[in-house]
Design brief:
0% strand, 83% helix, mainly alpha
Length: 84
């Protein structure tokens, strides 16, 4: 446990933020997993749109950095374009 009052408060804030961010991160991961598990291009395209929306929402809520989100969306788009 922290000895300094401000450090103890930061630890509490960190726990609170972790709890707040967890469902958003889980949603992003689930949508990315659904995209990766899609077999045909139509299902993959629908899953891609849903994944992009959830990633953008995570950025809006401050859970993901905008560069990290752009990187994830770029990789998903690259996979989508490689599908036959």
């Amino acid at each position: 446990m922290a000895n300094i009052k401000s450090s103890a408060k930061r630890a509490q804030i960190s726990v609170r933020n972790t709890l707040r961010n967890a469902p958003v991160k889980t949603t992003v991961k689930s949508n990315i997993r659904k995209f990766n598990e899609a077999t045909d291009k139509e299902n993959a395209a629908a899953a891609f749109r849903q994944a992009v929306v959830s990633i953008d929402k995570a950025v809006t809520k401050g859970v993901l950095h905008k560069s990290a989100a752009a990187r994830r969306k770029s990789r998903l788009a690259k996979k989508l374009n490689k599908m036959a």
